[in-house]
Specification:
By secondary structure, this protein is an alpha/beta fold. It contains nine helices and eight strands.
Length: about 300
């Protein structure tokens, strides 16, 4: 998993995994959001672009996970069950140098399971998160309100006790790209961020390079992409679309830099809503971004 034995994205083997997870979601059917990636030829297109990719099917999650509105986390303990299963499933892949899980059909809280798995594989000190998202997802649980695990995703990954298993990711190891909010405070106890305004000011490629340059050479990175980082007019099939956001051209520049970095240990694509993508043009656009980012330059 070190940068030393992973010289190029085209040397890696990407394991495409669906996460049929909708506990806490509002839209029935979102547990099938991985299948459109297959129908649109994700694996074949990655291989044609010079990557090595295999379809490892869906991670087997129970169909009886609870759904409720009880505070503080909607549908608890369903999310915790899903994270633990994801982490266990990823363990043998992360033990093999050059094997990179590529998760699709997720909600944002999958980052809790993937960081849990990566910390077990390489140690807490080496794990970093690059979180490309239209929101910060670092809300704090409130005993009087029921929040989705996705809304709390980064808080759960960075803190999370007693809601998650294992060690958390240090907040100083988390970088958020694409949100409309700046850091609410300075210091090592909050993640650093590059806002949408920063991208517009400095350019997507420069933001990606600045983010990567700040990571240690020994880092092993979870690269998280929530498709709601794109403006609704560009990619309307996001679970919670935003009026303002990246253009697809900006996304190509940003992800083209980030995805080729040899320190990427896990990639997760979250919050694609297949029920809003009637003609499957939107999933094709997401696949285009992956192929451009991971394929041979």
């Amino acid at each position: 998993m070190s940068a030393d034995n992973r010289s190029s994205s085209t040397d890696l083997l990407y394991h495409v995994l669906g996460v049929p997870y909708r506990t806490g979601s509002f839209t029935p059917g979102s547990e099938r959001d991985a299948q459109p990636y297959r129908d649109a030829g994700l694996v074949a297109r990655l291989n044609a672009a010079g990557c090595r990719a295999v379809d490892d099917g869906d991670i087997a999650l129970p169909s009886y996970l609870p759904h409720h509105e009880i505070p503080p986390i909607r549908s608890w303990p369903g999310p915790r069950i899903a994270w633990d299963i994801v982490a266990t499933h990823l363990a043998p892949l992360l033990a093999e140098p050059g094997h990179v899980p590529l998760l699709v059909g997720c909600d944002c809280s999958v980052v809790v399971g993937t960081t849990q798995a990566l910390i077990r594989a390489v140690g807490q000190d080496r794990v970093h998160v690059v979180y490309v998202d239209g929101d910060r997802d670092d809300g704090t649980p409130d005993p009087e309100k029921s929040y989705s695990a996705a809304y709390l995703a980064l808080w759960l990954a960075m803190h999370g006790e007693p809601f998650r298993a294992g060690l958390p990711v240090p907040p100083s190891h988390v970088r958020i790209i694409g949100g409309t909010q700046h850091d609410v405070a300075a210091g090592s106890d909050v993640p650093r961020s590059e806002s949408l305004a920063s991208i517009r000011r400095d350019g997507a490629k420069a933001i990606a390079r600045r983010t990567l340059d700040a990571l240690p050479a020994s880092a092993s990175v979870v690269l998280h992409l929530d498709v709601d980082v794109f403006a609704e007019r560009e990619l309307p099939a996001a679970y919670f679309p935003h009026e303002d956001g990246l253009t697809l051209a900006e996304g190509r520049e940003l992800l083209g830099e980030l995805m080729r970095d040899p320190r990427i240990g896990v990639i997760e694509i979250s919050e694609y809503a297949s029920l809003r993508d009637y003609d499957r043009r939107q999933v094709t656009a997401i696949i285009d971004l992956l192929v451009r980012g991971l394929g041979r330059p």
